[in-house]
């Protein structure tokens, strides 16, 4: 196995999922490459070292520029907050590193475009961690659609519901809470949650032509952790939009952090002429499937427990009936990336793929301001 | 339409379901017979009159012997407590009346046998209200099994769970509580709940060869409503048994009134070589179906919403997607009984069919006393 | 009991549900009034007579004007297609009859307004059959909201999904298919399905301030049953809209007849500060409830089997655990109407209540044309 | 962190789950010990080496006696077929090694007893991998019961349903199929599946007093992989038993590999005076909980998504709403074992605990032969 030397930036929730993926992927997948955890980078030296110890990184850094400059690093993995993605990616591309980037790609479309141009100019392998594509049930959905089983698509609906920011006492900003600070996050649920829904939707159902959106900020002011003062909340607490896909299907999308009872309820459903599919992150190991071609008396939604060897990714795991969880989606994505390095068929979504999601997010936020239908800028999908 | 003059005995829970069935059946089914509610009989004259008014009976009686003697009555419907079934049925058979009887048929097998002999000697149409056969989903299950879709049957499991007698303060005996009085009910959950499970099982899976059972009475003494004194509780509060069917399949059965959280959770599941079926009274309009012959990747339990016109009984009701409820099972049974009068093909279960269930119940109670496996006495099923 | 003489117009799906409600209501509810089925009216004399026989109407008519003129009729119940509602209601109001009208009230808001004015001028009791308010689970939801258990409301989402018009071979117009003919139906899913969603939403969550909508007609031409020719389809096959309620909550609504796998999946969910509620017509006897005030470790969505005597309407039916079905919602509404006659507190929704739903539907259809946010005209809710 | 040098015997399904647990545990738990993967042992040298490479073991062995003799090994982990457990464990105890053993402990009770005596005499830490205790939802169930929330227990029911041996073409014996060979496995579903159900039950509900069982071998002969000949099948394909716990509760247990549609459906339900609990391995991240003390109108089964930081083990993983899977139960057990080494409070189940499960299995198999109720030999539970 060829070693692939990883430099990880960020040690938070996403840093952990990525480190875990690199650490486990070779136990379960037969690959030509083996990730080697060279260094983790974080501003706080002590926390960086502790993370390195816990996850088996050989070293730690406190300045990402140093990490990018290190010659013993092949790949820069960006798991730091959204406002750092572009600057790091541009530097890493200039340094000729492979780049993995946590989603969303950028703070907005134009910024994302510079990143796409940089990696394409540098010809470096690149990928964005839209991990939910690699839930086996979601990949199975993609297969079914690609096989034409659904026929003409009429409807797509997705939502991502959470309830963790309902308390007005929750501050904004700082570790773990930067997602509430618009300067760091770029947006609220649109970039955080809807971006996932959009990435999946574009993958499953093709491009979105136009949309009309509304956003709301239910709690107008929150104490900022860094300043200690009450400050205006700049993010969207909730967002919903109607859309028309290029294939003629109609869609509704919604995300919020104010839906009591839902921790991370990402769901989608797609209705076709012949069959329908539904999925739910709270039971990610199941796919719901309805096929109108089944005998009439016996038609029903099938609850498919996606844990068999003939279902995507599952032959690498345990035995039928035994479910995997959230973290495995990152392991799958790491495996596909490494496989892509070997095969020369890059794994998706690339930066270019992720830019399209960024454009949709931009159109959503714009529509919420203009109160009008907005076109999504077109680009050819990779 | 030919009138069929009904005399109903009993005005309790079951009296209401039967009266409703007779009153509605011609609205929804095209039949040659039309039930006419001639008289209701109950010991309390005032209650009998009130029931007659509410349900549209032309008259009321307080002595069932008088009712049985009335020449303007074609059919005696027995909806009074278990300990009255045999005496009434024998008299009604002697009087040449058609007889419908609420389940269980009798206090025990030998008593039931006299009833079978009486109706067969008198050659009067007869039927027992094991209504759950006529849940459309259950009838659909029967069709699937009859078509051989399940292949060889390996397992049958049924349970009927309730939680309404957990409080020690609940008395035994008297109106609404006679089911706790062994002298009136004959047994506890065995005759009340397991009898339903057994009737369905015999219908779906054929005869039971032998079984081993346990029963328990959790609350040993309860105040008797009639005497006002604490008295020993004679019924079985809970009962479970293992069984072997004649077709070689293995079974577990259980019933209790001490299962917190379950009001009337009658469930069964049947596992065959090729397919499995499951059903649940709490969502009686659904059938769960798994077919191994479905394509591997897409196998899953189908949740069939049994509300389409091509599913049993449903063309008589509303439109697809709109569910019916509990009471409709009695309407279906009434319709089938009336249809059987016209066609000469009697509706089931007849008294003879119900006697087989009685024999199984007897074997269950016997095994619980002997702590041994007991054979179920054989009889040819009608 | 005082007789209330009913004249029913229409013998289709809705005629059956209403006739059944009038026929059953006194069996289950103790009321001062007793509906008497005097006459049913339909253009086809033979079908009218057959319906009268099946449902026990004393007579039949073929001209609704004659029915309205009959002195032996107290109440006109309109169950004929949408384009007939206004003319009949106006005449019935002039004749001083009580009026029940199937939903939607009218072809559009202005027409509905004339109906409201007519019944209010005539001071006749009036009600519209938005039956889903009387699903016990939905009424329970209303109670919980009225008690303030949810706290501030953040989100409302509703959809009504069907799949029965996907085939292009399905014609438009004629018996059973007038819902596809815009001249008779007024609109497609907006008036047929969204009207239900809107009625419930206004009842549970108050008025809608503004909205933005899209509609689509997937099948552009269908053969018209009456002309035998392919004709342009004028109805909306699918419709979705975003809305802002007056209480500040955000909403998404969607209806379609092109969602494979769903027969009549009307669902709503409402998310409040403290608790959330969800409901689903395919399992109408259940309410999903999540309460954040439950102990943390043990929080979860409760699946409430609404079949207990302390839950709305259920003491009138059977015993806990035994579900009722679709038709019972009409019986409940009939009971409430009759009770309202006695108490002088009219049952809702009245024509005036239903007009508000009509205004929302109008705004939806307008927005779909203008591609803009539209305000819903305000009126005080009855 | 102190290194703990592991020698693993067996590279099959269980070898992988154990290796994974040792490899991951320090990433997620802060522990004083760190497992070091010194050596894996398997008869096939090439496979042993391949496994060592894939999982990062420093060396491999082909003779378990050599492994046990190695001084650089602290702990022997037995993941080889059932018929090897005792011999290895006895040798390892003599060598003073800590011992972990895959379940079931032994081929039968008497053999297990020698193992308990050996480890207790040698005073070596020991544990059996009954991993399902460490499903967070199952641990939560244990907490609730220990807190007395259920009150008096009336019922326990468990089943473990699979469908992978229905085909008569499936051979017995050899790699992956030794579970069908009675000489290697000791029994069929009793030791393989029911043992899990029994371990959980004893942990949650205390000891079993007596039981009556039945077993069946549906396919009487299968080709043996090693001999190439059709041979009599000696295992039990299916097993069910009734039991009475020492606390007076009644139980039903069932396991089979002939239940179409179920891959690994281990479920249990426990009904108490005040509350009930249910769990299902196919959705292992959920716990179903019903509390009768909830307000009457709003009582329902709560579907608890066990993924919050205040629920057992979950603070070590991701964020609320993101589920873990099967393999994590082994990581939890490894963490608890290591924690036990530090604290001096040994993790359970020890060999002694597991022996009690063995005695129940023995009683089950005996009862299936005698067709009588059998007492379970008593021992004090550790």
In a few lines, what is going on in this structure?
The structure is a homotetramer of 382-residue chains. Helix content of chain A is 33%, strand content 25%.
- Please state the oligomeric state of the protein chains shown: homotetramer
Contiguous low-pLDDT stretches of chain A (5 residues minimum) are none
- Radius of gyration over C-alpha positions of chain A, nearest whole angstrom: 21 Å
**Biggest interface, residues from each chain:** A-C, 39 and 40 residues
Listing every helix as H and every strand as E from the N terminus to the C terminus, the arrangement of chain A reads: EHEHEHEHEHEHEHHEEEEEEEEEHHE
- End-to-end separation of chain A in angstroms reads 29 Å
* Largest beta sheet: strand ordering of chain A: 16-15-14-13-7-12-11-8-17
Tally of alpha and pi helices of chain A:
10
Shape of chain A: globular
Calculate the mean pLDDT score of chain A and round it.
97
What portion of residues of chain A is helical?
25-40%
Query: What is the SS-derived class of chain A?
Result: alpha/beta
Number of strands of chain A: 17
- Sheet having the most strands of chain A: 9 strands, mixed
Hey, roughly how much beta strand do the residues of chain A contain? 25-35%
